[in-house]
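Provenance and format

Records in this collection were gathered into a single text stream. Each protein contributes a sequence line and a token line. The two records reproduced below are adjacent in the stream.
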Amino acid sequence: MTKRVGLYPGTFDPLTMGHVDIIERAVKLVDELVIGVAINRDKGPLFNLDERVAMVEREMRLITSETGVAITVKPFEGLLVNFAESVGAGIVVRGLRAVSDFEYEFQMVGMNQALNDDIETVFLMADARYQSIASRLVKEIARLGGDVASFVPDNVAKLLAKKFSEPVI
């Protein structure tokens, strides 16, 4: 039997409880999960690439120890299907929060299938508790001094507080 490798891509700026929920459910579907941390210069991330990779790696250690599923975190840039091919992933995992997410993802699946129809995309609906969580909103709440503890893992909340307490140069 062939090993099922899944890929969950995103910018993870920052990693949220919604992301963690999707990851915890994705590991039930695959033998190995690669978390692809996207280098997306257009988004202008709050956390640099190394910070985002470290943030995700820290949280994945707990999930790996609880599930036994190998989870690797790798940065990537360029076409998603090319990255999926390079890590041997036959499944791309995407999380959906709302109908608006589906419209965008539907277009992406069509384009990705045109590029490589051997890679399947699996959509997981966000748990109702996490459907309103968006990294963009979490950053805004943290920037304005709000409590983000219920939206992100504890360590991420600390990193956000530190990031917004640092003087702007």
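Adjacent record:
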Amino acid sequence: MQKKDQSIFTKSLEFDDHEGVMYLRDESTGLRGFIAIHNTNLGPAVGGTRFRHYKNETEALQDALRLSRAMTYKCAAAGVPYGGGKAVLMAPKKITKHQKEIYLTAYTHCLELLHGHFFTGEDVGLDAHDITVLAKHSDSIIGRPRVGGMPARWAAHSVYRAMSVALKERFGSESFKGRVCAIKGLGNVGIALCALITKAGGSVIAADINHTRVRLARKRFQNIRIVPHTKIHTYATDIYAPCALGDEFNAVTIRQLRCSIICGAANNQLATREDGKRLFTRGILYIPDYVANAGGLINVVDELHKGGYSKSRVAKNVAYVATTVQQIIAGSRRQHQPTNDIADAIAEKRFHRGRARV
């Protein structure tokens, strides 16, 4: 671990009075990255570890700062007694399985320096095997395969519940029958969401840059329609579900949308706060990402419960996501304000007061 000039943090556009940022570097393994702690008013910080190739450290830092801030809001909105953090590891362009294990082991040494002030688990670039490797060397790992498990299934469930509420608001019925949903990203969450929607009678069009994931989806869902990932947001659908990376919506892409509802699992879907207003002005019902995808978080943090992990408690708390979505939509309608602004206000009220629904 090395010290970094403070100006790189405080001058960042994404810096939002973060409580701390740890710069990670280990020459022997090639480890480089950041752990960002945004706010711990509600409790210790939690957030996934992202393993991704970045152009440079500045890009990686921006991602860590933005994602950790979003975790604070997600924890508060989900009503769990934890704060927001995030780890971003800079992945080499090429790395073997053995090299990755060595790299992740070096990372756990940095985690232990935080003495339980940050708990982390799976995010982009990590799988169940990687989590097992991390858990061998650190007590700060959540989402362990043999305990709560990977969070994708629960994230899909919370997105599905949020979609149901949005359908009720927009069309007067929660039913998916006859509805068309576009899913961008066929990772674990996207595939699970496909299963839930098709089982409920909905139709799915989908896209992914990973051809293996596309083949898997085609094999599992015979009626799925695969479209170009650069064009999927332009198709006429009832629901558009971003389930890949963030910064999906901006002044350009919002003009191209032909959906009634946006509700997906990707983090940080809005490029700027103003993009929420653009969606609102266009009459598109946007369910804030950190509210919709909270199921994964709810599942993994339950491992930290004093009484141990409880699947039934997780299911109950994931079901509560629908109530939060209802509150946000009602507030947006009543105040005539974008849903992202309403959701932020609810979350900020909770974490500034340092209280959570337990």
